[in-house]
Amino acid sequence: MKTSIRIHSLLMAGLAFLAMSCDQGNRAGNGALSSNIAEKVYIAPGERDEQYGFLSGGYSGNLTVYGLPSGRMFKEIPVFSQFPTSGYGYSEETKPMLNTSFGFVPWDDLHHPDISQTKGELDGRWIFANGNNTPRIARISLTTFETEEIIEVPNSAGNHSSSFITENTEYVVAGTRFSVPVPQRDMPISEYKSNFKGALTFIAVDPEHGHFNIKFQLIMPGFNYDLSHPGRDKSHGWFFFSTYNTEEANTLLEVNASQNDKDFIAAINWKKIEAYVNNGGGKKVPARYAHNVYDESTHTATSTIKEEVLTVDPSDVPGAIYFLPTPKSPHGCDVDPSGQYIIGSGKLSADITVHSFDKMLAAIDAKKFDGEAYGIPILNYDDILAGTVQSGGLGPLHTEFDGRGNAYTTFFISSEVVKWKLGTWEVIDRQPTFYSVGHLMIPGGNSRKPHGKYLVAMNKITKDRYLPTGPEMEHSAQIYDISGEKMQLLYDFPTHGEPHYAAGCDAELIVNNSKKIYRLDENKHPYAITSPAQAKVERKGNEVHIYMSTIRSHFTPDNIEGIKVGDKVYFHITNHEQDFDVPHGFSIIGQGTSEILIMPGQTKTSLWEPKRVGVWPFYCTDFCSALHQEMQGYVRVSPANANIELSWSLDE
Amino acid sequence: MKKASILMIIGSAMLLSLFVFPMWNIRLGAPQYPEPLGIDIYINGLRGESEFDIQNIDGLNHYIGMKTLPKPEEMWEFSVFPLVILAMSIMGILIGFLSIAGKLSSNWFLLWFVLMSILGILGMYDFNQWLVAYGTDLDPNAIMKLLNPDGTPMKYNPPLMGHKKLLNFDAYSYPRLGGVLMGIGMIFTLTAYFIGRSKVIKTR
């Protein structure tokens, strides 16, 4: 009996060995490494990712937060769009965030997040993002992960070469993709040429609170300012914008804006313009734009309409702006960590053009110009060229850096990421993307000190990557390990909306500053109550204000009478929890807005306009405790002419 | 004899650390509380280990009908204990100095130690009484009224020392720095007695 078992197990072991060797044989191409790849992205339950990734949501108007390398989504931060999940843009406190000179605009197209920097390195305080459609720039706190400020950008349209920051977060810069009449006026479209202008806006960021103030707008020729990046380290003080449509076409741009063999990268010495402005230069002109600020202590946003902006005419600051000829309608405009190389990706080209900052300065010093455009000197292409990357790909778009002397460029048309070496311009490696990659992101890859371990490629086309979901699919992203000589595709994950650019950083930069609760004793909301004893209901004409509190698991008060049809009922709800991750929600039948989700210590307000007589329930929308289902209440609504006195109670 | 007296002074002075550090600690961890809630017990009152722990423990306790945790003015112990500790400490220091001066023998060290031990045991007894009362004197209208398998109402008092499972919570009760220093101080005074005594025997 014993022997037979032994023989049996020997046989089994032999079979297992055979199976294993077969397996290895099959996997030989991609595969001896497969298990090793899985380990690289596997974050065991309860463990946490190494890095944060903040992916723009594009037409979702929001910003999504991911963990790297797992590709798990942690949060969607509402920025430019109403967000019923939290009540952002629906609650009375946050409606002003979406105010513009066009009125309430509840949506935008969020493109290019950028994390604040100090001395050219990520500092993890804020993240900035641009609204492309109704030009706006937002600042999001990385302690609360909430949008704290939005400023509208006047004289701009298609706010695309935005929202990139200088290396000490002195400015967040917003350039217009579409040139427009400045100031706006009624005129024939066909008179575009030399009449339309492109505004490049430098928004000063208060170093302590991050508050925005438009320092100046540079009123440039009517090209399309597509993307931009700041100079860093040695080129700090300069800003570079790629342009297309230097033809100044106003129709069928896909043909008419592709005629010039070279467009420009505009090099802007912003320090020089800043000095000019500080000495009283520039012209104040009428403009209308909204400036919306959210105050964490009142939990409330205010919107102010500003009436004036300072503009600068380039011809008034000679020596501050130059054009660098760049082939084939450049899109991406990226600067390497040393600040020496300015990379222009001609999107219709196979090659990547690299300009040299030193050569640019030398050519400027020697006044070697190749003509001018609207009074702005054009440098000679050959004088400033550092090199060309003969990539073998097609349609280069964007470049990021790993801090080890390598650059990584995405190719939309040939659908790949190409790794190449700065200085020698040789191609080191190429990896396919799935499919048609737009931006890529290396955490910190757009600073002096990249956190260069992973690369995220964000694609425009998904097709067969995931289980099908009908005609509309989320976009796909890929994560590559770039710590070795060759890039290694690790993982594929769907993203939300349409990510354009993204930003990322090591987790430790943010983790310890992330807020857990708002302190109730610091709540300065005018309708906040700090004790359930202060709960009350007040009538002012047809406005009714309900001062309500929540704690597990009841509302105070939970029975309210004396409301009438036609009233405007404001539920001001303060969450009295001071425990991490215990929000309460509020919703009421017929609510014409959205629920509100109130974080511990916070106050939020929902407006309810009862239309029908009856007794209407409200409830907590967040499963807050074992007795969450009991967290409910009733509002009695009487006819408009009724004489029911206001009353409110809990457990009486 | 001088060495023993100094040890006596140090040992009894270490009681004063109870005015700075917590004596005892009760920690409550649960699946939902990977960072446990904690109560630091000082001789003059209770404090949360994190700022809002007391409030959050009270919030959870309302489900089982427990009273809210006592404020200093709600328990006589929190005003009497500091006086007792202060008095004992001063007395011990005084005994130490008087023995240096040769006015008292080391037997006084033992007397002090025995007195302090009796007070300590009484204190622990009182503490346990409080824990039991707190864990069993529940609101009859509590949201959750749980019974033991034998049909008796479930008790929620944390252990006097060690670990105990209370529904979804793991309760841990252990001395903290103040209590530990007090214990070491008392050992010092006992050691002082033995050193003092052996010296006396030798000199004989």
Notes on the protein architecture:
The complex is a heterodimer of chains A (652) and B (204). In chain A, 10% of the residues lie in helices and 43% in strands. Chain A has 652 residues and is mostly beta strands. Chain A folds into two domains: 54-513, Methylamine Dehydrogenase, Chain H; 520-649, Cupredoxins -  blue copper proteins (Immunoglobulin-like, Sandwich). The longest helix of chain A is centred in the first third of the chain and has 30 residues, at 2-31. Residues 1-29 of chain A have low confidence and may be disordered. In chain A, strands 6, 7, 8, 9, 10, 11, 12, 13, 14, 18 and 19 form an eleven-stranded mixed beta sheet that branches. Chain A is built from six helices and 46 strands. Chain B is α+β, with helices and mostly antiparallel strands and 204 residues long. Chain B has one domain. Chain B is 50% helix and 16% strand. A five-stranded antiparallel beta sheet of chain B has the order 3-2-1-5-4. In chain B, strand 4 and strand 5 (169-175) form a beta hairpin. Chains A and B meet through loops of A and helix 2 of B.
